[in-house]
TrEMBL record:
Keywords: Transferase
Protein name: Sulfotransferase domain-containing protein
Species this protein is from: Stephanodiscus triporus
Gene Ontology molecular function, alphabetical: transferase activity
Family matches, as PANTHER family: SULFOTRANSFERASE SULT
Domain Sulfotransferase: 209-348
SUPFAM superfamilies tied to this protein: P-loop containing nucleoside triphosphate hydrolases
Family: Belongs to the sulfotransferase 1 family.
Amino acid sequence: MPSPPPATGLAPPGIGSNPSPYRYGDEGLPVPWWFNPKTALLYRDLDVYDDDVVLSSGVKMGTTWLSRLLVNLLYDEDDDDDDVVDETTTTAADDDDDDNSASSRLRRRRHPGRLGQTYPESTYPTRIEKANDEYGIYDRVPNGADVVDKMFGDYVWEDLVGMPRPRLFVSHLFGRAYLPSMLFDDDDDAGDADDGGGGGSRTRRRGKGRLIVLLRNLKDTMISLHNFRGTPLDGMHGNEHGPGSFRRFVDVGACPNSYGSAFRWIAESANALDEIGPDRSLVVYYEDLVLDFRGEVRRICDFLGLSPLSESRLRRVETACGIKNMRDDANFRLGDLCCRGGGIGGWKDVTELNDEEHWSALDRVFDDMLGGVKIAEPLRSYQTR
């Protein structure tokens, strides 16, 4: 898919909270510079297994944290296995091991998300396409291939599809239009319209897999996005480079931030959750992870059908998912960048937006877009002084 030229006067397009000139799909969803449209389509058309887990998380809502937690819950089984291994190394014995009870060391080694999330849309379909940079994605920024590998690991779509089961897919993509279509119930055409029997019939295809949606209050989300990878060129309130972080964030109709408006993101995620139903979908709130980590771990384990964690394993999960541990772990991709230790309510201390006029404007957009949306209501208490 061809992309528009970079916007004049901006830092590398789609970097941090700078607006992105790249678009995807019929609706023109803004996407980051590393976004691969071909793989995004492969993700939407994924052959979903019943035990697949899909994490759909809004930008700057805690994706890295919950991804790390899910990897530990799904793949870490042996209490005595704390070794760090080369994430790209496998052996012939590894490849021949089809035993579902393989050690957690082997399973984590073969999981692209072990040392940081790997978004499907950040990859090329195959090694050959990646080596040839067939869409010129890596030319968009200096040393683009190295930058992508540092952020997401040296993986391709084939690696993600071949993950050990249960597979975990992590992405900012959202809603019916962009998530794997097989998550949802759907009508399949059956029969032959020309068979003389009065036309084809339609059968109901049942959805597969589980969907987890991660949410965070939008005021903290906006501040985290504003500070991500440095202050954007148009600042908080706008200048000759653009409208500024605040106006971009509350502009639902034309938000140029990567993955578009956070308000729309939540609204469409709510529709997807309603369609899939509570048996195969779960909402996790960033604030609940902060306030009651152990309780949320138990709730997630129950949703995934996992056995309750022993006290020793729960302590190990807490340690592995600690913000400081993730930030200081030299083997964890972008831990120093994505794990800033953001708490709850930091928006109240932002001097650039210390007047009620701006926050009231955001509240009005929230009411207009998300008033009455069930999954959005718990966010209100964290968006109030």
